[in-house]
Protein backbone atom coordinates (compact mmCIF):
# COMPACT_ATOMS: atom_id res chain seq x y z
CA UNK A 1 0.00 0.00 0.00
CA UNK A 2 1.39 3.38 -0.97
CA UNK A 3 1.17 5.60 2.08
CA UNK A 4 2.16 9.25 2.49
CA UNK A 5 2.89 10.66 5.95
CA UNK A 6 2.02 14.35 6.27
CA UNK A 7 3.38 15.72 9.51
CA UNK A 8 6.44 13.58 10.18
CA UNK A 9 6.91 14.40 13.84
CA UNK A 10 7.15 11.99 16.76
CA UNK A 11 3.83 10.36 15.82
CA UNK A 12 4.12 10.35 12.04
CA UNK A 13 7.68 9.04 12.04
CA UNK A 14 6.91 6.28 14.54
CA UNK A 15 3.83 4.90 12.81
CA UNK A 16 5.36 5.40 9.38
CA UNK A 17 8.46 3.48 10.45
CA UNK A 18 6.41 0.59 11.82
CA UNK A 19 4.41 0.38 8.58
CA UNK A 20 7.51 0.56 6.38
CA UNK A 21 9.23 -2.13 8.43
CA UNK A 22 6.19 -4.35 7.74
CA UNK A 23 6.63 -3.89 3.99
CA UNK A 24 4.33 -0.97 3.18
CA UNK A 25 5.47 1.61 0.62
CA UNK A 26 6.04 4.72 2.76
CA UNK A 27 6.67 8.29 1.62
CA UNK A 28 7.42 10.94 4.22
CA UNK A 29 6.83 14.66 3.79
CA UNK A 30 9.70 16.16 5.79
CA UNK A 31 11.00 19.43 7.08
CA UNK A 32 13.28 19.34 10.09
CA UNK A 33 14.82 15.90 9.58
CA UNK A 34 15.02 15.91 5.76
CA UNK A 35 18.81 15.89 5.44
CA UNK A 36 19.44 13.41 8.24
CA UNK A 37 16.76 10.95 7.14
CA UNK A 38 17.77 11.01 3.48
CA UNK A 39 21.40 10.46 4.41
CA UNK A 40 21.27 7.99 7.31
CA UNK A 41 17.74 6.64 7.38
CA UNK A 42 15.61 6.51 10.55
CA UNK A 43 16.46 5.05 13.94
CA UNK A 44 13.51 4.10 16.17
CA UNK A 45 14.51 3.82 19.80
CA UNK A 46 11.62 1.89 21.26
CA UNK A 47 10.71 0.29 24.56
CA UNK A 48 10.02 -2.79 22.42
CA UNK A 49 13.55 -2.76 20.98
CA UNK A 50 15.38 -0.36 18.69
CA UNK A 51 15.45 -0.71 14.92
CA UNK A 52 16.96 1.07 11.96
CA UNK A 53 15.43 1.77 8.54
CA UNK A 54 18.46 2.49 6.35
CA UNK A 55 16.44 3.97 3.53
CA UNK A 56 13.67 6.55 3.94
CA UNK A 57 11.79 8.05 1.02
CA UNK A 58 11.68 11.66 2.13
CA UNK A 59 10.37 14.74 0.30
CA UNK A 60 10.14 18.45 0.88
CA UNK A 61 7.07 18.88 -1.34
CA UNK A 62 4.07 16.54 -1.54
CA UNK A 63 3.82 17.10 -5.30
CA UNK A 64 6.94 14.93 -5.64
CA UNK A 65 5.07 12.04 -3.99
CA UNK A 66 1.98 12.10 -6.19
CA UNK A 67 -1.23 10.12 -5.59
CA UNK A 68 -1.21 7.47 -2.85
CA UNK A 69 -3.65 4.93 -1.41
CA UNK A 70 -3.58 6.40 2.09
CA UNK A 71 -2.59 9.75 3.54
CA UNK A 72 -1.61 9.50 7.18
CA UNK A 73 -1.92 12.92 8.84
CA UNK A 74 0.20 13.53 11.94
CA UNK A 75 0.54 17.29 11.62
CA UNK A 76 0.29 19.42 14.77
CA UNK A 77 -3.13 21.04 14.57
CA UNK A 78 -1.77 24.57 14.87
CA UNK A 79 -0.40 23.98 11.36
CA UNK A 80 -3.86 23.11 10.00
CA UNK A 81 -4.06 26.27 7.88
CA UNK A 82 -1.57 24.62 5.49
CA UNK A 83 -2.92 21.06 5.76
CA UNK A 84 -5.28 21.10 2.78
CA UNK A 85 -2.57 22.33 0.43
CA UNK A 86 -0.15 19.70 1.68
CA UNK A 87 -2.66 16.88 1.13
CA UNK A 88 -4.18 17.87 -2.24
CA UNK A 89 -1.36 16.59 -4.51
CA UNK A 90 -1.54 13.17 -2.81
CA UNK A 91 -5.09 12.39 -3.86
CA UNK A 92 -6.12 9.93 -6.54
CA UNK A 93 -9.73 8.89 -7.17
CA UNK A 94 -9.82 6.39 -4.28
CA UNK A 95 -7.27 7.83 -1.83
CA UNK A 96 -8.32 7.61 1.84
CA UNK A 97 -7.17 10.18 4.39
CA UNK A 98 -6.64 9.12 8.00
CA UNK A 99 -6.00 11.90 10.49
CA UNK A 100 -4.37 10.92 13.77
CA UNK A 101 -4.24 14.52 14.97
CA UNK A 102 -5.40 15.65 18.40
CA UNK A 103 -8.75 17.12 19.32
CA UNK A 104 -11.79 18.07 17.33
CA UNK A 105 -12.30 19.65 13.93
CA UNK A 106 -9.62 17.91 11.86
CA UNK A 107 -11.91 15.49 10.05
CA UNK A 108 -14.31 18.36 9.31
CA UNK A 109 -11.53 20.46 7.79
CA UNK A 110 -10.46 17.63 5.49
CA UNK A 111 -14.04 16.61 4.67
CA UNK A 112 -14.91 20.15 3.60
CA UNK A 113 -11.93 20.24 1.25
CA UNK A 114 -11.97 16.69 -0.13
CA UNK A 115 -15.36 15.10 0.61
CA UNK A 116 -16.51 13.32 3.75
CA UNK A 117 -16.33 9.85 2.17
CA UNK A 118 -12.53 10.01 1.95
CA UNK A 119 -11.99 10.75 5.62
CA UNK A 120 -11.16 8.51 8.54
CA UNK A 121 -9.96 9.59 11.95
CA UNK A 122 -8.00 7.84 14.60
CA UNK A 123 -7.19 8.39 18.24
CA UNK A 124 -3.63 7.43 19.04
CA UNK A 125 -2.46 6.47 22.51
CA UNK A 126 1.25 6.93 21.98
CA UNK A 127 4.09 8.23 24.15
CA UNK A 128 6.77 9.29 21.73
CA UNK A 129 9.19 12.17 21.31
CA UNK A 130 11.57 13.34 18.66
CA UNK A 131 15.18 12.63 19.43
CA UNK A 132 18.23 13.82 17.52
CA UNK A 133 17.64 14.46 13.80
CA UNK A 134 17.00 11.07 12.22
CA UNK A 135 15.75 9.55 15.47
CA UNK A 136 12.38 8.99 17.07
CA UNK A 137 11.91 7.83 20.66
CA UNK A 138 9.05 5.47 21.46
CA UNK A 139 8.48 5.63 25.22
CA UNK A 140 5.40 3.43 25.46
CA UNK A 141 1.89 2.58 24.28
CA UNK A 142 1.02 3.05 20.64
CA UNK A 143 -2.46 1.69 20.09
CA UNK A 144 -4.92 3.36 17.74
CA UNK A 145 -8.71 3.37 17.55
CA UNK A 146 -9.84 4.44 14.12
CA UNK A 147 -13.14 4.92 12.38
CA UNK A 148 -14.99 6.52 9.51
CA UNK A 149 -15.82 10.21 9.76
CA UNK A 150 -19.16 9.87 7.94
CA UNK A 151 -20.19 6.25 8.38
CA UNK A 152 -20.24 3.44 10.91
CA UNK A 153 -17.97 0.43 10.83
CA UNK A 154 -16.90 -0.15 7.19
CA UNK A 155 -14.80 -2.86 5.51
CA UNK A 156 -12.28 -0.14 4.67
CA UNK A 157 -11.82 0.77 8.33
CA UNK A 158 -11.51 -2.88 9.34
CA UNK A 159 -8.94 -3.61 6.64
CA UNK A 160 -6.91 -0.60 7.65
CA UNK A 161 -6.97 -1.68 11.28
CA UNK A 162 -5.81 -5.15 10.29
CA UNK A 163 -2.98 -3.69 8.24
CA UNK A 164 -1.83 -1.65 11.24
CA UNK A 165 -2.07 -4.67 13.52
CA UNK A 166 0.01 -6.67 11.06
CA UNK A 167 2.66 -3.97 11.35
CA UNK A 168 2.81 -4.30 15.14
CA UNK A 169 0.52 -1.37 15.90
CA UNK A 170 -2.39 -2.47 18.09
CA UNK A 171 -5.40 -1.07 16.24
CA UNK A 172 -9.14 -1.36 16.52
CA UNK A 173 -11.78 -0.16 14.05
CA UNK A 174 -14.70 1.50 15.82
CA UNK A 175 -18.21 2.45 14.80
CA UNK A 176 -18.27 5.72 16.74
CA UNK A 177 -15.21 7.83 16.05
CA UNK A 178 -16.76 10.85 17.74
CA UNK A 179 -17.07 8.98 21.02
CA UNK A 180 -13.39 7.98 20.83
CA UNK A 181 -12.41 11.60 20.23
CA UNK A 182 -14.35 12.81 23.26
CA UNK A 183 -13.04 9.98 25.44
CA UNK A 184 -9.52 11.06 24.58
CA UNK A 185 -10.41 14.65 25.44
CA UNK A 186 -11.51 13.59 28.91
CA UNK A 187 -7.83 12.91 29.55
CA UNK A 188 -6.21 15.49 27.27
CA UNK A 189 -8.18 18.52 28.39
CA UNK A 190 -7.14 18.44 32.05
CA UNK A 191 -3.70 16.89 31.83
CA UNK A 192 -2.29 18.54 28.70
CA UNK A 193 -3.36 22.00 29.76
CA UNK A 194 -2.68 21.85 33.48
CA UNK A 195 0.78 20.39 32.94
CA UNK A 196 1.57 23.01 30.29
CA UNK A 197 0.26 25.84 32.47
CA UNK A 198 1.89 24.85 35.74
CA UNK A 199 5.03 23.06 34.58
CA UNK A 200 4.09 20.05 36.75
CA UNK A 201 3.93 16.51 35.34
CA UNK A 202 0.94 14.16 35.67
CA UNK A 203 2.32 12.46 38.78
CA UNK A 204 2.80 15.80 40.53
CA UNK A 205 -0.71 16.94 39.59
CA UNK A 206 -2.22 13.81 41.09
CA UNK A 207 -0.09 14.03 44.24
CA UNK A 208 -1.55 17.43 45.16
CA UNK A 209 -5.09 17.27 46.57
CA UNK A 210 -6.19 20.57 45.03
CA UNK A 211 -5.05 19.88 41.49
CA UNK A 212 -6.22 16.26 41.64
CA UNK A 213 -9.70 17.49 42.56
CA UNK A 214 -9.48 19.98 39.70
CA UNK A 215 -8.57 17.23 37.23
CA UNK A 216 -11.61 15.23 38.34
CA UNK A 217 -13.88 18.25 38.12
CA UNK A 218 -12.71 19.06 34.60
CA UNK A 219 -13.09 15.41 33.53
CA UNK A 220 -16.66 15.52 34.82
CA UNK A 221 -17.34 18.65 32.80
CA UNK A 222 -15.98 17.05 29.62
CA UNK A 223 -17.98 13.82 30.08
CA UNK A 224 -21.17 15.85 30.59
CA UNK A 225 -20.52 17.78 27.39
CA UNK A 226 -19.58 14.60 25.49
CA UNK A 227 -22.80 12.89 26.49
CA UNK A 228 -24.80 15.61 24.77
CA UNK A 229 -23.02 15.21 21.41
CA UNK A 230 -25.29 12.46 20.11
CA UNK A 231 -22.87 9.60 20.75
CA UNK A 232 -24.16 6.13 19.93
CA UNK A 233 -23.52 5.14 23.52
CA UNK A 234 -22.96 7.58 26.37
CA UNK A 235 -19.82 7.55 28.53
CA UNK A 236 -20.22 6.26 32.09
CA UNK A 237 -18.55 9.21 33.82
CA UNK A 238 -17.57 7.92 37.27
CA UNK A 239 -16.35 4.55 35.99
CA UNK A 240 -14.43 6.00 33.06
CA UNK A 241 -12.87 8.78 35.14
CA UNK A 242 -11.87 6.26 37.76
CA UNK A 243 -10.11 4.18 35.10
CA UNK A 244 -8.29 7.18 33.68
CA UNK A 245 -7.05 8.26 37.11
CA UNK A 246 -5.84 4.75 37.91
CA UNK A 247 -4.05 4.53 34.56
CA UNK A 248 -2.49 7.97 34.99
CA UNK A 249 -1.41 7.09 38.52
CA UNK A 250 0.76 4.38 36.97
CA UNK A 251 2.56 6.83 34.66
CA UNK A 252 5.89 7.76 36.18
CA UNK A 253 6.23 11.55 35.94
CA UNK A 254 4.91 11.55 32.36
CA UNK A 255 5.03 14.96 30.64
CA UNK A 256 2.21 15.40 28.08
CA UNK A 257 3.19 16.75 24.68
CA UNK A 258 1.59 20.13 25.39
CA UNK A 259 3.77 20.57 28.47
CA UNK A 260 6.86 19.87 26.40
CA UNK A 261 5.62 22.24 23.68
CA UNK A 262 5.21 25.04 26.25
CA UNK A 263 8.60 24.37 27.82
CA UNK A 264 10.19 24.54 24.38
CA UNK A 265 8.19 27.66 23.56
CA UNK A 266 6.36 26.06 20.66
CA UNK A 267 2.73 26.94 19.96
CA UNK A 268 0.06 24.83 21.68
CA UNK A 269 -2.82 22.93 20.06
CA UNK A 270 -5.44 25.11 21.73
CA UNK A 271 -8.00 25.30 18.92
CA UNK A 272 -8.41 21.53 18.54
CA UNK A 273 -8.16 20.56 22.21
CA UNK A 274 -9.93 23.52 23.87
CA UNK A 275 -11.66 26.05 21.62
CA UNK A 276 -13.53 23.56 19.42
CA UNK A 277 -14.68 21.31 22.30
CA UNK A 278 -15.79 24.42 24.25
CA UNK A 279 -17.75 25.60 21.22
CA UNK A 280 -19.47 22.25 20.77
CA UNK A 281 -20.23 22.02 24.49
CA UNK A 282 -21.72 25.51 24.55
CA UNK A 283 -23.78 24.70 21.46
CA UNK A 284 -25.65 22.02 23.45
CA UNK A 285 -25.88 24.02 26.67
CA UNK A 286 -23.15 22.10 28.50
CA UNK A 287 -20.88 24.85 29.72
CA UNK A 288 -17.44 23.76 30.93
CA UNK A 289 -16.41 26.66 33.21
CA UNK A 290 -13.20 25.16 34.59
CA UNK A 291 -12.13 24.11 31.09
CA UNK A 292 -12.92 27.60 29.80
CA UNK A 293 -10.74 29.11 32.52
CA UNK A 294 -7.86 26.80 31.69
CA UNK A 295 -8.23 27.66 28.00
CA UNK A 296 -8.12 31.40 28.76
CA UNK A 297 -4.98 31.00 30.87
CA UNK A 298 -3.23 28.88 28.23
CA UNK A 299 -4.22 31.27 25.46
CA UNK A 300 -2.89 34.22 27.48
CA UNK A 301 0.44 32.41 27.60
CA UNK A 302 0.50 32.27 23.79
CA UNK A 303 0.46 36.06 23.54
CA UNK A 304 3.75 37.64 22.73
CA UNK A 305 3.51 40.90 24.62
CA UNK A 306 7.13 41.66 23.93
CA UNK A 307 6.43 41.66 20.19
CA UNK B 1 2.99 58.33 70.18
CA UNK B 2 5.23 55.33 70.67
CA UNK B 3 4.73 53.01 67.71
CA UNK B 4 6.30 49.64 66.96
CA UNK B 5 6.42 48.30 63.41
CA UNK B 6 6.25 44.51 63.22
CA UNK B 7 7.02 43.36 59.70
CA UNK B 8 9.31 46.05 58.34
CA UNK B 9 9.00 45.26 54.68
CA UNK B 10 8.01 47.58 51.86
CA UNK B 11 4.77 48.52 53.62
CA UNK B 12 5.99 48.70 57.22
CA UNK B 13 9.09 50.69 56.35
CA UNK B 14 7.18 53.18 54.20
CA UNK B 15 4.42 53.95 56.68
CA UNK B 16 6.84 53.89 59.61
CA UNK B 17 9.10 56.35 57.84
CA UNK B 18 6.22 58.71 57.09
CA UNK B 19 5.11 58.62 60.74
CA UNK B 20 8.64 59.12 62.10
CA UNK B 21 9.20 62.05 59.76
CA UNK B 22 6.03 63.60 61.24
CA UNK B 23 7.49 63.36 64.73
CA UNK B 24 6.11 60.07 66.02
CA UNK B 25 8.35 57.82 68.14
CA UNK B 26 8.98 54.85 65.85
CA UNK B 27 10.60 51.51 66.69
CA UNK B 28 11.19 48.99 63.94
CA UNK B 29 11.50 45.26 64.42
CA UNK B 30 14.00 44.31 61.72
CA UNK B 31 15.59 41.34 60.06
CA UNK B 32 16.99 41.80 56.58
CA UNK B 33 17.87 45.49 56.78
CA UNK B 34 19.02 45.63 60.44
CA UNK B 35 22.68 46.43 59.78
CA UNK B 36 22.07 48.92 56.99
CA UNK B 37 19.30 50.82 58.78
CA UNK B 38 21.20 51.07 62.08
CA UNK B 39 24.29 52.31 60.26
CA UNK B 40 22.93 54.62 57.57
CA UNK B 41 19.29 55.24 58.41
CA UNK B 42 16.47 54.84 55.89
CA UNK B 43 16.13 56.33 52.43
CA UNK B 44 12.59 56.62 51.04
CA UNK B 45 12.57 56.98 47.27
CA UNK B 46 9.07 58.27 46.65
CA UNK B 47 7.06 59.54 43.73
CA UNK B 48 6.31 62.47 46.03
CA UNK B 49 10.01 63.19 46.55
CA UNK B 50 12.81 61.28 48.24
CA UNK B 51 13.75 61.77 51.89
CA UNK B 52 16.28 60.37 54.32
CA UNK B 53 15.83 59.50 57.98
CA UNK B 54 19.39 59.48 59.33
CA UNK B 55 18.49 57.66 62.53
CA UNK B 56 16.28 54.57 62.76
CA UNK B 57 15.56 52.82 66.02
CA UNK B 58 15.86 49.22 64.89
CA UNK B 59 15.72 45.99 66.91
CA UNK B 60 16.11 42.30 66.31
CA UNK B 61 13.86 41.32 69.23
CA UNK B 62 10.60 43.00 70.21
CA UNK B 63 11.42 42.52 73.92
CA UNK B 64 14.01 45.27 73.52
CA UNK B 65 11.25 47.68 72.43
CA UNK B 66 8.88 47.04 75.34
CA UNK B 67 5.30 48.33 75.62
CA UNK B 68 4.10 50.85 73.01
CA UNK B 69 0.92 52.80 72.31
CA UNK B 70 0.41 51.28 68.88
CA UNK B 71 1.64 48.16 67.15
CA UNK B 72 1.61 48.50 63.37
CA UNK B 73 1.60 45.06 61.77
CA UNK B 74 2.95 44.79 58.23
CA UNK B 75 4.13 41.18 58.35
CA UNK B 76 3.52 38.95 55.33
CA UNK B 77 0.65 36.68 56.34
CA UNK B 78 2.57 33.49 55.62
CA UNK B 79 4.64 34.46 58.68
CA UNK B 80 1.52 34.64 60.88
CA UNK B 81 2.51 31.57 62.91
CA UNK B 82 5.14 33.74 64.65
CA UNK B 83 3.07 36.95 64.80
CA UNK B 84 1.59 36.52 68.27
CA UNK B 85 5.00 35.94 69.83
CA UNK B 86 6.43 38.98 68.08
CA UNK B 87 3.62 41.24 69.31
CA UNK B 88 3.24 40.06 72.92
CA UNK B 89 6.23 41.95 74.44
CA UNK B 90 4.93 45.20 72.93
CA UNK B 91 1.67 45.27 74.86
CA UNK B 92 0.87 47.55 77.78
CA UNK B 93 -2.60 47.86 79.33
CA UNK B 94 -3.90 50.18 76.59
CA UNK B 95 -1.83 49.23 73.56
CA UNK B 96 -3.78 49.15 70.29
CA UNK B 97 -2.81 46.80 67.46
CA UNK B 98 -3.42 47.85 63.86
CA UNK B 99 -2.88 45.17 61.22
CA UNK B 100 -2.36 46.37 57.67
CA UNK B 101 -1.82 42.84 56.38
CA UNK B 102 -3.55 41.41 53.33
CA UNK B 103 -6.64 39.27 53.25
CA UNK B 104 -8.85 37.76 55.92
CA UNK B 105 -8.14 36.22 59.30
CA UNK B 106 -5.44 38.51 60.66
CA UNK B 107 -7.64 40.48 63.06
CA UNK B 108 -9.14 37.21 64.30
CA UNK B 109 -5.71 35.75 65.01
CA UNK B 110 -4.68 38.80 67.04
CA UNK B 111 -8.07 39.09 68.77
CA UNK B 112 -7.92 35.48 69.94
CA UNK B 113 -4.50 36.06 71.44
CA UNK B 114 -4.89 39.56 72.89
CA UNK B 115 -8.62 40.42 73.05
CA UNK B 116 -10.86 41.85 70.35
CA UNK B 117 -10.99 45.33 71.93
CA UNK B 118 -7.32 45.95 71.16
CA UNK B 119 -7.57 45.22 67.49
CA UNK B 120 -7.98 47.50 64.49
CA UNK B 121 -7.46 46.60 60.88
CA UNK B 122 -6.60 48.64 57.86
CA UNK B 123 -6.65 48.16 54.13
CA UNK B 124 -3.68 49.80 52.48
CA UNK B 125 -3.62 50.88 48.84
CA UNK B 126 0.10 51.19 48.41
CA UNK B 127 2.51 50.44 45.60
CA UNK B 128 5.88 50.00 47.23
CA UNK B 129 8.84 47.67 46.95
CA UNK B 130 11.99 47.08 48.89
CA UNK B 131 15.07 48.52 47.27
CA UNK B 132 18.68 48.02 48.30
CA UNK B 133 19.18 47.37 52.03
CA UNK B 134 18.29 50.61 53.81
CA UNK B 135 15.97 51.76 51.02
CA UNK B 136 12.27 51.58 50.34
CA UNK B 137 10.69 52.49 47.00
CA UNK B 138 7.32 54.23 47.01
CA UNK B 139 5.87 53.84 43.51
CA UNK B 140 2.46 55.36 44.09
CA UNK B 141 -0.75 55.51 46.13
CA UNK B 142 -0.57 55.00 49.87
CA UNK B 143 -4.00 55.63 51.32
CA UNK B 144 -5.39 53.56 54.16
CA UNK B 145 -8.92 52.78 55.29
CA UNK B 146 -8.92 51.60 58.89
CA UNK B 147 -11.53 50.50 61.36
CA UNK B 148 -12.22 48.64 64.57
CA UNK B 149 -12.34 44.86 64.45
CA UNK B 150 -15.13 44.56 67.03
CA UNK B 151 -16.93 47.91 66.97
CA UNK B 152 -18.19 50.57 64.58
CA UNK B 153 -16.61 53.96 64.19
CA UNK B 154 -14.81 54.86 67.46
CA UNK B 155 -12.95 57.98 68.63
CA UNK B 156 -9.81 55.84 68.74
CA UNK B 157 -10.11 54.94 65.05
CA UNK B 158 -10.82 58.54 64.09
CA UNK B 159 -7.84 59.86 66.08
CA UNK B 160 -5.57 57.29 64.51
CA UNK B 161 -6.77 58.23 61.04
CA UNK B 162 -6.12 61.91 61.80
CA UNK B 163 -2.63 61.10 63.02
CA UNK B 164 -1.88 59.25 59.77
CA UNK B 165 -3.29 62.10 57.72
CA UNK B 166 -1.10 64.54 59.63
CA UNK B 167 1.89 62.42 58.63
CA UNK B 168 1.00 62.67 54.94
CA UNK B 169 -0.75 59.32 54.69
CA UNK B 170 -4.28 59.76 53.33
CA UNK B 171 -6.37 57.84 55.84
CA UNK B 172 -10.06 57.35 56.52
CA UNK B 173 -11.69 55.72 59.54
CA UNK B 174 -14.56 53.45 58.52
CA UNK B 175 -17.44 51.85 60.36
CA UNK B 176 -17.31 48.57 58.43
CA UNK B 177 -13.81 47.14 58.27
CA UNK B 178 -15.09 43.82 56.96
CA UNK B 179 -16.60 45.51 53.90
CA UNK B 180 -13.26 47.22 53.18
CA UNK B 181 -11.45 43.91 53.44
CA UNK B 182 -13.82 42.25 50.97
CA UNK B 183 -13.68 45.22 48.60
CA UNK B 184 -9.92 44.89 48.51
CA UNK B 185 -10.25 41.18 47.83
CA UNK B 186 -12.38 41.90 44.75
CA UNK B 187 -9.18 43.28 43.23
CA UNK B 188 -6.58 41.14 44.97
CA UNK B 189 -8.12 37.75 44.31
CA UNK B 190 -8.06 37.94 40.50
CA UNK B 191 -5.05 40.15 39.90
CA UNK B 192 -2.61 38.89 42.53
CA UNK B 193 -3.20 35.27 41.70
CA UNK B 194 -3.52 35.45 37.92
CA UNK B 195 -0.39 37.58 37.62
CA UNK B 196 1.54 35.25 39.93
CA UNK B 197 0.33 32.16 38.07
CA UNK B 198 0.86 33.36 34.50
CA UNK B 199 3.76 35.79 34.88
CA UNK B 200 1.72 38.47 33.11
CA UNK B 201 1.21 41.96 34.60
CA UNK B 202 -2.17 43.65 35.07
CA UNK B 203 -1.96 45.51 31.76
CA UNK B 204 -1.28 42.28 29.86
CA UNK B 205 -4.16 40.50 31.64
CA UNK B 206 -6.60 43.23 30.64
CA UNK B 207 -5.32 43.37 27.06
CA UNK B 208 -6.26 39.71 26.45
CA UNK B 209 -9.99 39.11 25.98
CA UNK B 210 -9.98 35.71 27.66
CA UNK B 211 -8.15 36.70 30.81
CA UNK B 212 -10.02 40.01 31.04
CA UNK B 213 -13.31 38.08 31.02
CA UNK B 214 -11.88 35.76 33.67
CA UNK B 215 -10.94 38.72 35.89
CA UNK B 216 -14.50 40.03 35.62
CA UNK B 217 -16.00 36.63 36.34
CA UNK B 218 -13.85 36.17 39.43
CA UNK B 219 -14.67 39.67 40.64
CA UNK B 220 -18.35 38.83 40.28
CA UNK B 221 -17.86 35.67 42.33
CA UNK B 222 -16.10 37.60 45.11
CA UNK B 223 -18.74 40.34 45.24
CA UNK B 224 -21.50 37.71 45.50
CA UNK B 225 -19.69 36.04 48.39
CA UNK B 226 -18.96 39.40 50.06
CA UNK B 227 -22.61 40.39 49.95
CA UNK B 228 -23.53 37.37 52.05
CA UNK B 229 -21.08 38.20 54.85
CA UNK B 230 -23.46 40.47 56.76
CA UNK B 231 -21.89 43.73 55.59
CA UNK B 232 -23.61 46.90 56.80
CA UNK B 233 -24.09 47.90 53.19
CA UNK B 234 -23.79 45.57 50.24
CA UNK B 235 -21.37 46.16 47.36
CA UNK B 236 -22.89 47.25 44.05
CA UNK B 237 -21.16 44.66 41.89
CA UNK B 238 -21.34 46.03 38.33
CA UNK B 239 -20.54 49.60 39.35
CA UNK B 240 -17.70 48.64 41.68
CA UNK B 241 -16.18 46.16 39.21
CA UNK B 242 -16.39 48.78 36.47
CA UNK B 243 -14.48 51.24 38.67
CA UNK B 244 -11.81 48.68 39.50
CA UNK B 245 -11.28 47.79 35.85
CA UNK B 246 -11.03 51.44 34.85
CA UNK B 247 -8.56 52.12 37.65
CA UNK B 248 -6.48 49.06 36.77
CA UNK B 249 -6.52 50.04 33.11
CA UNK B 250 -4.61 53.16 34.12
CA UNK B 251 -1.85 51.20 35.84
CA UNK B 252 1.10 50.89 33.49
CA UNK B 253 2.24 47.25 33.55
CA UNK B 254 1.88 47.08 37.34
CA UNK B 255 3.12 43.83 38.90
CA UNK B 256 1.19 42.89 42.06
CA UNK B 257 3.23 41.86 45.09
CA UNK B 258 2.23 38.23 44.72
CA UNK B 259 3.61 38.14 41.18
CA UNK B 260 6.94 39.49 42.43
CA UNK B 261 6.89 36.99 45.31
CA UNK B 262 6.43 34.12 42.87
CA UNK B 263 9.12 35.40 40.52
CA UNK B 264 11.52 35.63 43.43
CA UNK B 265 10.44 32.20 44.65
CA UNK B 266 9.10 33.48 47.95
CA UNK B 267 6.02 31.91 49.51
CA UNK B 268 2.64 33.40 48.56
CA UNK B 269 -0.06 34.73 50.91
CA UNK B 270 -2.52 32.03 49.90
CA UNK B 271 -4.21 31.40 53.24
CA UNK B 272 -5.26 35.03 53.82
CA UNK B 273 -6.14 35.92 50.23
CA UNK B 274 -7.63 32.63 49.00
CA UNK B 275 -8.20 29.86 51.54
CA UNK B 276 -9.91 31.98 54.20
CA UNK B 277 -12.18 33.87 51.75
CA UNK B 278 -13.10 30.55 50.08
CA UNK B 279 -13.95 29.09 53.49
CA UNK B 280 -16.15 32.03 54.41
CA UNK B 281 -17.83 32.01 51.02
CA UNK B 282 -18.56 28.29 51.23
CA UNK B 283 -19.93 28.77 54.78
CA UNK B 284 -22.72 30.95 53.39
CA UNK B 285 -23.33 28.86 50.28
CA UNK B 286 -21.59 31.24 47.87
CA UNK B 287 -19.20 28.97 46.05
CA UNK B 288 -16.47 30.70 44.03
CA UNK B 289 -15.48 28.00 41.51
CA UNK B 290 -13.09 30.07 39.41
CA UNK B 291 -11.41 31.41 42.54
CA UNK B 292 -11.14 27.87 43.90
CA UNK B 293 -9.45 26.76 40.69
CA UNK B 294 -6.98 29.62 40.84
CA UNK B 295 -6.22 28.79 44.47
CA UNK B 296 -5.57 25.14 43.62
CA UNK B 297 -3.20 26.10 40.80
CA UNK B 298 -1.31 28.59 42.95
CA UNK B 299 -1.08 26.14 45.81
CA UNK B 300 0.27 23.46 43.46
CA UNK B 301 3.05 25.89 42.56
CA UNK B 302 4.02 26.13 46.24
CA UNK B 303 4.80 22.41 46.40
CA UNK B 304 8.45 21.55 46.29
CA UNK B 305 8.39 18.24 44.45
CA UNK B 306 12.16 18.28 44.18
CA UNK B 307 12.46 18.31 47.99
UniProtKB/TrEMBL annotation, chains A, B:
- Tell me the keywords, alphabetical order: NADP, Oxidoreductase, Pantothenate biosynthesis
* Domain Ketopantoate reductase C-terminal span(s) in chain numbering: 176-299
Which Pfam families does the UniProt entry name for this protein? ApbA, ApbA_C
An annotated GO cellular component:
cytoplasm
Record-linked Gene3D superfamilies: N-(1-d-carboxylethyl)-l-norvaline Dehydrogenase, domain 2 (1.10.1040.10), NAD(P)-binding Rossmann-like Domain (3.40.50.720)
GO molecular function per UniProt? 2-dehydropantoate 2-reductase activity
Pathway it belongs to? Cofactor biosynthesis; (R)-pantothenate biosynthesis; (R)-pantoate from 3-methyl-2-oxobutanoate: step 2/2
Q: What does this protein do?
A: Catalyzes the NADPH-dependent reduction of ketopantoate into pantoic acid.
This protein is called 2-dehydropantoate 2-reductase
Q: Which organism is it from?
A: Geothermobacter hydrogeniphilus
Q: What is the lineage of its organism?
A: Bacteria, Pseudomonadati, Thermodesulfobacteriota, Desulfuromonadia, Desulfuromonadales
Amino acid sequence: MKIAVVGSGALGLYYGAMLQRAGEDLHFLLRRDYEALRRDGLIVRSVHGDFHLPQIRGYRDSREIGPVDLVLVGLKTFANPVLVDLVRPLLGPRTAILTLQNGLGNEELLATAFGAERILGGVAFLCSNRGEPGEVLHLGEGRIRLGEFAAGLTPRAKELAERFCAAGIPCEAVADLLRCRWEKLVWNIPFNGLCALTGRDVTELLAHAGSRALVEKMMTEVVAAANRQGLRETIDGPAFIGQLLTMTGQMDHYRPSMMIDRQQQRPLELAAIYAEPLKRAAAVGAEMPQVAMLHALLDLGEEDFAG
